Hints:
Blueprint: H1 4-54
Amino acid sequence: MLNTGDIAFQIFMILMIIVPVVVVILLVISFSKRNERLKRIEEKLDQLVNEHKKK
Length: 55
């Protein structure tokens, strides 16, 4: 039979394995979305600069 302390320790150890993996995945997704957003902003700025130069 397991004690509640043993169960709590096992849950804590499982979380110590799972949480860092989830954090890394979320960071990668966040950075990729940020890069896409920056590319769109850069394209819009390029369009505005080109339109301004044509005038």
